[in-house]
Amino acid sequence: MKDGHVIVKKEQRAYKTVYRDWYTTGIQKMDHNYHLINEGILTKQDFNILFESENGKKYIPVETTDSLYIYSNVIMSGNFFDFMNQVGLNVSFINKYGEKIGSFVPNNSRRNIKTELKQLRMYDSEKERLDMARRLEIASVSNIRANLRYYQRRKNATELGAAVKDMTDIITKLNEARDINHMMMLEAQARQKYYGCFNSILEGKQFYFDKRTRRPPQDPLNAMISFGNTLLYQRIANEINRTSLDIRIGIVHAAGNRPESLNLDLADLFKPILVDRTIFTLVNRKMINVNDFVEVENNGIYLNNRAKKIFISEYENKLYQKVTFDGAERTYDYLIKNEIQKLKKYIENGEKYKPYKYV
Hints:
Four Helix Bundle (Hemerythrin (Met), subunit A); hydrolase activity; DNA-binding; manganese
């Protein structure tokens, strides 16, 4: 670490155990997380989970599993969620558009009233919340700028250089902003300019970015952005739910009727490096093509099962890419967990909080 920033070395990947028959069974293990793409039935089998599909049976050992991610129509037996609660597993449900539709969080949560009250006091303090929001927003735009610089060095595109300057200007304005709504407007401007650079980063003619669309996404690139963002939101949500922090109480994103806010704040720090780079890799290496997407009646576009499998694999590879952090080789998965712990220490003990910045 130098001047509070993470120093990134040449890419080194720590590949985790992956089922070799992933493309036929529709189930993938990456580290302690399982992704279920195909339709099937989930049941408790002794002290394991059994997933049955038209391609056969696969056992999921609960003692080495943290989370399940389900992307298709899956039937659960009557005692399945009792078992999930007993063993403390999170289950996330994601629809065909890459949007989270629900989750199961075990009731053995580590939340405690003292931490929740401190979160609420921080949220209710206009000065403190504004200071924390400024830190997060500046770090988020800084990471967008760093990603643009990364590709500027490789593409030598004039547009990318101009966008880097735009991000620097927006960071200056964030330092001067007097309310969170203004900060969010500035961040939205930064992301709009950033998305406008995608066509300078993408190679080939199959994929073209026009504008950001969602609910549902209107083209393949937006489908991948929505899908990748959901993966990141839920990974961070699962980690937050393993701590005493209350995920409903955000900092930048207002706490209201939304069931999750804090994970959205932290995800913005990692989107450029994890989600966007996954997309650029898949497109530029021709790992995904326009035939890997499906259009439905309401003009929405989503990834087919093949594309979801490929996306998840590359996304998880990025998640376990190693960087030098505090003098040690760490993965982005570690950095996410560390970010949550830093925020927790700030809220509980008042330790200084510096959001993650990629350089």
